[in-house]
Amino acid sequence: MPLRLYMHPLASYCWKTLIALYETGVPFEQEVVDLQDPGARERFVRMTPLGKFPVLVDEEANKAFPESSIIIEYLSMKYPAAAKLLPADKDLALRVRLSDRFYDLYVHEKMQKIVADRIRPEGRKDPSGVDRARQELEIALALVDRDMGAGGWATGLTFTMADCAAAPALYYANQVAPFAESHPGAARYLDRLIARPSFARVLEEAAPYFEMFPKG
Ligand SMILES: N[C@@H](CCC(=O)N[C@@H](CS)C(=O)NCC(=O)O)C(=O)O
């Protein structure tokens, strides 16, 4: 098997790449890494010193990539079936990358900040950082609500890398800051993402691990 994805089934950025892989049917193998296991962590960090999931290894090409967006860019360059995730038109591709950045930086990262605080020990929590993350998440969700209520995908009628980014970011944001009432347009977009077979499959595979998700 030429492609191997180092990942964890609960990890949101891994979901982003899994959605891309399931969307395109590119064959790959999953290598689940348990970062709680010191041996597994040490081996993983030797491969990728920042220790972040996902990492895609192309064994045939002898290449390895961290960073979910770069992994999707690589898939779209190498596999014709994945090319649709990044439009050939340069202006459209720029819009997809902009939307991908928006979901990663202003939805996903804010959500991660809130979740990460849940697992900090008492006395080492960061309530003002979490307040700020909640405020910034709220601004981002208002933009999603404004743009996505009427239907379609992140940058138009075609499902792209931006939707791969949006799905995990909005799914987990809705767990930590439910937005169905405050932002119904954003919630309808999340419903469309959840109904998409690629994301539905990711959620089904993650379901056995959901009890590990830190409670608020
Ligand atoms: N910018 C990176 C973010 C990756 C990231 O934050 N991964 C999380 C899981 S969703 C992780 O590896 N966390 C483990 C850790 O930080 O120890 C990407 O797009 O892939």
Please explain how this structure is put together.
The protein is of the alpha+beta class and 216 residues long. It is 57% helix and 8% strand. The protein has eight helices and four strands; from the N terminus they run βαβαββαααααα. Strands 2-1-3-4 form a four-stranded mixed beta sheet, covered by helices on one side. Helix 1 (12-24) runs parallel beside helix 3, helix 4 (90-118) packs parallel to helix 6 and helix 5 (127-148) packs across helix 7 (184-195). It is globular and about 45 Å long. The protein starts with a strand and ends in a 10-residue tail after the last helix. 36% of the residues are buried. The site of glutathione has 11 residues, from helix 1 and helix 3. Residues 11-13, 35, 51-54, 67-69 line the site of glutathione.
Question: Characteristics of this structure?
Answer:
216 residues; alpha+beta; Glutaredoxin; Glutathione S-transferase Yfyf (Class Pi), Chain A, domain 2; 4-stranded mixed beta sheet; 8 helices; binds glutathione
Detail the topology: elements first, then pairings.
Layout: E1 3-7, H1 12-24, E2 29-32, H2 38-47, E3 55-58, E4 63-66, H3 68-78, H4 90-118, H5 127-148, H6 161-176, H7 184-195, H8 197-206
Parallel strand pairs: 1-2
Antiparallel strand pairs: 1-3, 3-4
Helix pairs in contact: 1-3, 1-6, 1-8, 4-5, 4-6, 5-7, 6-7
Glutathione binds at residues 11-13, 35, 51-54, 67-69.
